[in-house]
Amino acid sequence: MADIQSLKEALSVSPNNLPLLLMLGDAYLEELEFDQARQIYESALEVDPGNPVARTQIAQLLELDGRSSEAILRVDQVVGEHPDFAPAWMMRAKLALTENNGREARECYEKAVSIEPALQNEDLLKRIRQAGGRRKIEESREPTPQATADKQAGAYYDSEFEEDDFDDESYGDESEIEIEFIQRTDVNFKKVGGMDAVKEDIRMKIFYPMENRELFEAYGKKAGGGVLLYGPPGCGKTLISRATAGEINANFLSVGLHQILDMWIGKSEEKLHEIFELARRNAPAVLFFDEVDALAADRKDMRTSAGRTLINQFLAELDSESAENEGVLVLGATNAPWHLDSAFLRPGRFDRLVFVPPPDTEAREEIIKIMADGKPVSGLDPQALAKRVKDFSGADIKAMFDQAIEASLSEAMKSGKVVPVTQKQLAKCARAVKPSTKKWFESARNYALYANQSGFYDDILKFLGVDKP
Ligand SMILES: Nc1ncnc2c1ncn2[C@@H]1O[C@H](COP(=O)(O)OP(=O)(O)OP(=O)(O)O)[C@@H](O)[C@H]1O
Ligand SMILES: [Mg+2]
To answer: Is 327 within 8 Å of 352 (Cβ atoms)?
Structure first.
């Protein structure tokens, strides 16, 4: 480990040198100088806003500070965007362990080690084994076909985790669920490129009703209720939902649904009720559930899916007829709305749907500008590049940038000088990224054509230019 003084000297000559910043951050961390470490990692993020190393280290600092929910949120973003970045998975495993979620800890640990075997850590593995308490929930739920297949394949139950490893005392106290109050200052629509129609839709369906409740009620319209954002992956549903918090004059609570799903049977219903009550007490409030399709009973692709009682509980809480949801708006986001029980989409529940399409050329241009902002990029022609990356989602554009930046960075490390990212390099990386939205539209098209009760998915057909059958 290089010493702090010499790293500082080197940085005074080249203050935006990312590898140096990361090394200094690590050195501070090693010396247990947490505040300084945090500051340096933040500076690293100013140089490279998405940097997974700095973000993972900041998560570690948050965890050391007892803010594990925030840490989890951050690491989840990192693994979402960089699924091959093993240290983030390892950090995620440690955080799951803090939360006493042995099963998740183990899944993340294995993921990390499968990517980077050198990360193996016997001590951690032992602690994960001791905390493997969630298994009992899995067993008492109705197993999905996938879960049964997984079980046969030994996915959650291999011999490494024997029955004896689960002692009752290691089951954690699950009474605390993470609810994030997103501050207005954290995010806003400026960070979201394009999507003008979606922004306007959100204004009409969320802001105006929440901010003019009396007026709406005078016309017999509800201010609360449910709005569901849906669309292909990586096109900004999560981003714009969180940015909504920065625009609206109401409390914004973001809830990790997966944590609720991970609870003991019976406990999750109770928690869900408490969360809605919390929002009611804090009205006007937006209650945000990301990836709400986790509540779908027939989801085969997820390790957790909700039981019937939890779904019923959610429906009852959501129901504007039976529940006192005055001034509480429930915002959900999903890329698989068709997996949701159709009861969710009935009037008084998620009855306002907002389609979040892939970015059009102008939106891609804006996203490119947002991504290039503050980075060493030279000769960028956002318009030309936007045209080139047809069918790209925001996440695909981000992947293109990440690749180009990594290439420049390794050049920079060799030469010791900042090597800017060029248009040519971005275009080259674009060729290596496979646009991810097309596949989604293949299945979406079928749902929109053949399972389109009440015209829910008309926006998809409109987008595809397909006539209704
Ligand atoms: N309109 C946009 N403006 C700026 N960045 C964007 C935009 N859309 C997507 N991105 C980038 O892509 C990343 C992924 O977007 P996001 O997580 O919001 O997608 P999503 O629609 O929620 O996907 P999923 O269905 O997989 O959850 C964002 O973190 C952001 O970096
Ligand atoms: Mg999302």
So the answer is: no
